[in-house]
Write a structure and sequence with these properties.
Blueprint: H1 2-12, H2 16-28, H3 33-53, H4 59-76, E1 90-95, H5 103-114, E2 118-121, H6 128-138, E3 142-146, H7 153-165, E4 173-177, H8 183-189, E5 193-195, H9 198-211
Parallel strand pairs: 1-2, 1-3, 3-4, 4-5
Helix pairs in contact: 1-2, 1-3, 2-4, 3-4, 3-9, 4-5, 5-9, 6-7
Length: about 210
């Protein structure tokens, strides 16, 4: 439908006013909230994620697109009762204990939400046990761990060890990332996957969800 294509394009451009206007128009046309979200808002955000991955756009562009997506979601959310949009799964996200950095982690959260995942963002300086406790409580299938300083990287293994100790390795997958983190380190500590940037993290979370 042309209107939904226009909605996706407006989101790609980060035009929050246009996204709001087109979302209202779609609602007035009695298009289902499910369709508005998936074929308009999420479709546009998927393009933004791919453009960011190949460096056609940069962080400010992603943040504008996220703001535009929220402008549309705010209008659709009240209509979702009885027409709930199925989630791709729940991800628990946070920067590990001792690490106060969260810009990269926040970007991953934005892009995961844009891709259709439910995200439980625990913030920064998160205790290892909290990641696992919340994942179990929320039925999350993936835990995403971020570290921006090398001294906090070992905490990632603590989370992975707790998952294993509780017999949850088949139910909960752990993905790690952050500037000092590498695939070799991820393999060394027994992580299920590694994301080298926000767009790649979304791809890898999709793959983990599909394999779990």
């Amino acid at each position: 439908m042309e209107l939904l294509k226009d909605l996706a394009l407006a989101l790609e451009r980060g035009d929050d006013e246009r996204v709001a206007d087109l979302t209202r128009a779609a609602i007035d046309m009695a298009i289902s909230p499910h369709t508005i979200v998936n074929d308009g808002l999420v479709a546009g955000m998927n393009v933004v994620g791919e453009q960011f991955r190949i460096h056609e756009i940069f962080l400010p562009d992603v943040l504008l697109a996220a703001r535009a997506m929220n402008a549309g979601l705010d209008l659709v959310k009240p209509l979702l009762v009885g027409d709930a949009v199925p989630s791709l799964g729940t991800v628990v996200l946070g920067s590990v204990k001792g690490d106060m950095h969260d810009i990269g982690k926040n970007l991953v959260g934005i892009m995961l939400k844009g891709a259709g995942f439910d995200v439980v963002d625990l913030g920064n300086d998160v205790d290892p046990i909290a990641f696992v406790d919340v994942a179990v409580a929320k039925g999350a299938r993936v835990i995403g761990l971020s570290a921006l300083i090398t001294t906090t990287m070992p905490v990632m293994k603590e989370v992975i060890d707790i998952v294993a100790e509780r017999g949850l390795k088949d139910a909960i997958r752990v993905i790690v990332g952050g500037a000092p983190v590498s695939r070799a380190f991820a393999e060394q500590i027994g992580a299920d996957d590694y994301g080298y940037d926000a767009a790649n993290a979304v791809e890898r979370v999709r793959a983990l969800m599909a394999s779990s």
